[in-house]
Specification:
6 helices; 13 strands; three-stranded antiparallel beta sheet; alpha+beta; Jelly Rolls; seven-stranded antiparallel beta sheet
Length: about 290
């Protein structure tokens, strides 16, 4: 099978699951300010669960552990319960409960060592076209179900792989139906010895400049701990992933690899969240939420 065809199959052989809208949280007993006061923001050096990585936070960022992250996602932002995260990052000067609030969801996918041998051979313009075609094809099923279409407008930041740090990052511009406010989806993947550290930040496209600058900081202060680093991979004892960098950008892979099977981020369009489920190839379910204003 040709490489482009394989990438396309890994991308968007998908149909959409029914969309579900989260109800607004009922602030009958607690105001948003009172709710935020219950959150335990952490600063400085943060050891992520299971000791896989450390975040050396500057003063401009703060961290919530997985428990408080779940409270924000479910109680404040009105999302269904998720599959668990490693926590979440927020700018120190912006409340996540405001209209301009945004955050970075952190997860880890232990699917094995991802080879970067294809780094120089990926044609990201071809990949962009294939991803757009995949979204357009999936929209046919969306329309049959009576839901608004989604468009992959293009790269808000073209994929870039840093060979020295083994960090891959890119940003996508998305639109939903007739909504004039487009969505920014900023993605970071940090390659490790046994898996990939996944960081997803989502906001309105009008925030792209500020968030790109902030995400450069996030990329710089996030790294694997000794024992989990990419350079420590041992081909004789460690598992290798069944995909490369192109599949990380595409966001869809085979059933046995499991990447993106859990919560992979929040897609913000205007002020609402909505669940968008893609069934890639043989049933990998990725949940992406849009927030409904509290």
């Amino acid at each position: 099978m040709k490489k482009s065809a394989l990438v396309f199959l890994c991308l968007f052989l998908a149909v959409l699951t029914p969309l579900a809208y989260a109800e607004d949280p009922q602030p009958t007993e607690m105001t948003l300010a009172e709710f935020e006061a219950t959150l335990n923001y952490q600063h400085g050096d943060i050891d992520l669960p299971d000791g896989i990585a450390t975040l050396k936070l500057p003063e401009s960022f703060r961290y919530l552990d997985p428990e408080d992250t779940e409270r924000v996602l479910v109680m404040a932002w009105g999302n269904p319960e998720g599959d668990g995260t490693l926590g979440m990052l927020f700018p120190s000067d912006i409340s996540p409960l405001t209209e301009d609030g945004w955050g970075v969801i952190i997860t880890y996918e232990e699917d094995g060592y991802v080879s970067d041998k294809d780094a120089d051979s990926i044609d990201y313009e071809d990949l962009l076209k294939e991803m757009k075609d995949g979204v357009a094809e999936a929209n046919k099923e969306r329309e049959k179900l009576g839901y608004e279409s989604m468009e992959f407008v293009g790269w808000a930041a073209k994929p870039y792989y840093d060979k020295e740090s083994h960090k891959l990052y890119w940003a996508k511009e998305l639109s939903f139906g007739e909504n004039p406010v487009h969505t920014l989806n900023y993605n970071v993947r940090i390659l490790g010895r046994k898996g990939v550290l996944v960081l997803n930040a989502v906001a309105g496209i009008n925030q792209v400049s500020a968030i790109a600058n902030d995400m450069n900081q996030v990329i710089a202060f996030t790294d694997f701990n000794p024992g989990h680093r990419y350079s420590e991979y041992n081909s004789k004892t460690d598992k290798a992933a069944a995909y490369g960098l192109a599949a990380l950008v595409a966001g869809g892979i085979g059933a046995k690899t499991g990447l993106f099977a859990k919560l992979i981020g929040l897609l913000i369009a205007a002020k609402k969240f909505v669940i968008v489920g893609f069934i890639a190839l043989v049933g990998i379910l990725s949940r992406i939420f849009k927030r409904k204003e509290p």
